[in-house]
Amino acid sequence: MTNPLDLPSVSWADTTLKDGVLDFVLKGTGSGNRLGMAFWDEAPGLFDAIDGSAAIRAVLLRGAGKAFSTGLDLASMAGTVAPVYGAGTSAQARNGLRTLILNMQRAVLSLATCRKPVLAAIDGPCIGGAIDLIGACDMRLCTDGATFSVREARMGIVADMGTLFWLPRLIGEGRARELIYTAEDIDGTRAARIGLASRSHVDASGLLADARAVCGRIAANPPLVVQGAKQVMIEGLEADLRAHLRTMATWNTAFLASADLQEAVTAFFEKRSPRFQGD
User: Fold this and answer.
1) pTM for this one?
2) Structural fold of domain 13-202+222-270
3) Which of 9, 98, 168, 188 could serve as 253's disulfide partner, Cβ 3.0–4.6 Å?
């Protein structure tokens, strides 16, 4: 990690600073930049440090390689997640699951409440947990060929990191419900058409040029004015966002350890379609 700003060092991102713009490149596990426990544990501290850095005026968030992110890294997280997701119905097990969810939600909160504007430049897959991340960003740009999916319904999970809060506000209730209930994939052109992204570009070079230009214009403005505007806007939503996240953590604490979730995970690793029974 190129670290001229005394930011916390992490293995899942590279950062470089130029003219007040922090180029923040996700490089999670595997070819899909998957988000493992290191990300969920360390992101709050990193975004808190970004928030406190006078040198940073805007953040350009993008993925390394050919994906923005394909969401949670189920394989690497199995040792942490499985003991609480499948631990049964005891009060201790349920409390452990709720604590895990609340801790992971802090990553999304830290991004949303960071006073530095964050622009997500999305190329390739943006799946599951990655939708939570881009929802918490201030702006989103993409390529025509980017792929977006609120994948949780296919995995026997109710999205609990912020997607159900952000998506209706970005694209409207009807469109949000369609994407959430169907778990369908949409491309970048449709994402821009419905407002999930501000606009789409033919290729990654055009996307990156536009994203850098927008961040540059933000960085050229008085930083306290820009940061103050973001702080005022997020404070209007923060109480509702925190209440929403607590509700989602409680819901999944009660219902996540299901036979359908176990079937979804088994089918994922066996590379077959799941057979859900509603149990």
Assistant:
1) 0.86
2) 2-enoyl-CoA Hydratase; Chain A, domain 1 (3.90.226)
3) 98
